[in-house]
Amino acid sequence: VSGAQPTLNGVPGFRLGGVSAGIKKRGGLDLGVIVADAVVACAGVYTTNLVVAAPVVQSRAKLAAAPRARVVIVNSGNANACTGARGEVDAAEMAKAAADAVGCDVRDVQVCSTGVIGAPLPVERVRDALPRLLDVTRVDGLPDFARAIMTTDTRPKQRGVRLTIDGREITIAGACKGAGMIHPNMATMLGFVLTDAPIAEADLVAVWGRVAGRTFNAISVDGDTSTNDTALCLASGAAGGAPLQGDALTRFEAALEQVAGELARDIVRDAEGATKLVAVTVQGAPSDADARRAANAIATSPLVKTALHGEDPNWGRMVAAVGRSGCPIDTARVRVAVGETTVFAANAWAGAEAEQAAHATMKTPEYGVTLDLGLGEGRFTVFTCDLSGDYVRINADYRS
Amino acid sequence: VSGAQPTLNGVPGFRLGGVSAGIKKRGGLDLGVIVADAVVACAGVYTTNLVVAAPVVQSRAKLAAAPRARVVIVNSGNANACTGARGEVDAAEMAKAAADAVGCDVRDVQVCSTGVIGAPLPVERVRDALPRLLDVTRVDGLPDFARAIMTTDTRPKQRGVRLTIDGREITIAGACKGAGMIHPNMATMLGFVLTDAPIAEADLVAVWGRVAGRTFNAISVDGDTSTNDTALCLASGAAGGAPLQGDALTRFEAALEQVAGELARDIVRDAEGATKLVAVTVQGAPSDADARRAANAIATSPLVKTALHGEDPNWGRMVAAVGRSGCPIDTARVRVAVGETTVFAANAWAGAEAEQAAHATMKTPEYGVTLDLGLGEGRFTVFTCDLSGDYVRINADYRS
């Protein structure tokens, strides 16, 4: 598996499509669907925000009862969040309409909504568009689906890989949307990854939980979590054979992480106002959880993110962010590197030459920053972006 | 007590001054001192960052051993942070030099440093300037002291009140510096409040802890805490009489909070790039700690802060910030008000007219936002500012 490519347009066992249902004010594709040929294994990871949109509440409950699905129906342009009892009725109606149109149990329908918070969902437009939507679904329909779930994204995001495991040709492909929770009331990140690999339900749930933790849950645009975030993984088993186990399952997990990782990084690359994709790695922490806390503090610090924008190897801001993160730190043991260049170690600045080399690395659009805390084996990487004047301009615009 | 004024230039029992010692590259006052006529009660609140500057480590230890001081010596232009063993030696030298010059025990000297992180402190310049500094100290020297502690501040910050308690004329006055930890490697907030009220040491420690929690620890510019933050309160007792107790002490605490509160808000008013001072109040939370978590999440959210800059009553971003804060929330019970105008209640937007009224409030430079969670009696207010393009420009500037 040498790279997740944006050119794989479908996965055996699934049909996908997208249409315009009239939900987005400005028009364009705004209703997408994934229909599996039969009920398949499905694992979901949802927002941890306590303010949860109705579709998330219902879809989460369904997968908690049984990790499987037949249909994923997604609208953009309206988040159906902070909409009270009416929102719950609308989300249930949307699921029921999709179940009726496909001819399946409503419990096997996952519903996702993304867009404006606090406005009622025009569910009748979803119902009216459903026959048309099912008509256009096809095996290579991922590009239309990827477009239908976009809100403030400047481009659709899809990635896929093909690999051979135990002599079987396996496809993994998916799409996502999101530019951080950075647009007026847009609610926000959705990710969908499909595979034809045969995976036992319980394995898919475990694998997806780990993979999402290292991909969709390891990116930061602005530190805000949304009310609608959802990442689903569906496995059709169309590649045939018995469920993957042992080493085969491990190889599958690595490939899945590659696809989900590229999709997640595509969100950061498309983050509004952003010009840099920066991998912030904290290693040598007492534990992985400590490393995660420290990396997140760095990746969400406005001071660090403005320094990234200014291409300034400002290790002081990074070290200070770790200091308030809850992760233990002893500055005498800390080494900070930008790319391959050490800029701070043993309580001392590495000098002007190192700083110039680091500055040169920071002029490139994608690079890594590493803080080795020298305390243990804990390690975590978060992908973040710079904070630019464009971010402020976009988000300070009064809603029109 | 009707308002803390920036015109009180001293407090009986203290002499203050500031000189240029050549620590700041660009020149200007950079060494300030407060000398009490005798050893007085002194309470301190310090940064919670685990990366702590040497002067903070030493000064904190002294007050932990005995809450009293004779001298506070402060330099700007250099934070003496991330400077390792040499930094510890330099901070101790600075205290020793001040103790020798005044003729007091080194344990009664508080040392504060603020400025660039990671550069060695030129302690010999402090030592050389000390005789000159002590020569210029005077009872009404607060303005020079306030200037000597500035780094990126655009103006000195001093506030004071006079009031009568139990027939005694009491003065409370102080100065602070800081514009958030928002300038390249500037480390950051310092606050000093003096009073001639007679206060028992233990009472001063308790009162100052509470007051600092509601003032210097209830402001946010960018969510970053620094390596050098220090707030000291010194009580000379020069007003005479027995230590204040009971209602008199309570009245003193209220006046102290007023002075410290105005000083803290002056920091937010002077925050780089900021154009608004916004009081974010969360009430109706299960507990004060929950309210504090929720208010801090709102006050530090880049999405909320850009909306404040855009004068956009974007309640969705505020509610979503509470949802990820750890504070319980049930959107059906939440009411959001901007100034006096309710913009969201009972899971519904309050309409275009309310939004226009809220927008008008947000055009003013200072106002409040209130989220009533409808769950309990917990309440907390955080003062924050907007996030502007100027903030990004200032902080993205490559260090020169």
Molecular structure report:
2 copies of one chain form a homodimer. In chain A, helix 5 (201-214) runs parallel beside helix 6. The mean pLDDT of chain A is 91. In chain A, the strands form 2 sheets. In chain A, strands 1, 2, 3, 4, 5, 6, 7, 8 and 10 form a 9-stranded mixed sheet that branches. Chain A is built from 11 helices and 16 strands. The first copy, chain A, is an alpha+beta fold and 400 residues long. The interface between A and B is large, with 65 and 65 residues.
Strand content of chain A: 25-35%
Total helical segments of chain A: 11
Shape of chain A: globular
Helical residue percent band of chain A = 25-40%
Tell me about the largest β-sheet of chain A. 9 strands, mixed
Can you count the beta strands of chain A? 16
The whole-number mean of residue pLDDT values of chain A reads: 91
Q: Which class of secondary structure composition applies to the elements of chain A?
A: alpha+beta
Which stretches of chain A are low in confidence, meaning pLDDT under 50 for 5 or more residues running? none
What is the radius of gyration of chain A? Answer: 22 Å
The SSE order of chain A reads EEHEHEHHEEEEHEEHEHHHEEEHEEH
Question: Cα distance, first to last residue of chain A?
Answer: 45 Å
Say what oligomer this is.
homodimer
Q: Name the pair of protein chains with the most residues at their interface, and give those residue counts.
A: A-B, 65 and 65 residues
Topology summary:
The structure is a homodimer.
Chain A (H helix, E strand, L loop, with lengths): L13 E6 L11 E16 L7 H12 L2 E11 L5 H19 L6 E8 L6 H14 L5 H7 L8 E9 L2 E10 L8 E2 L2 E6 L5 H14 L4 E2 L9 E6 L10 H24 L7 E9 L2 H13 L1 H8 L5 H9 L11 E4 L2 E5 L2 E2 L2 H11 L3 E7 L5 E8 L3 H8 L4
Parallel strand pairs in A: 3-4, 8-10, 9-16, 11-15
Antiparallel strand pairs in A: 1-2, 2-3, 2-10, 4-7, 5-6, 6-8, 11-16, 12-13, 12-15, 13-14
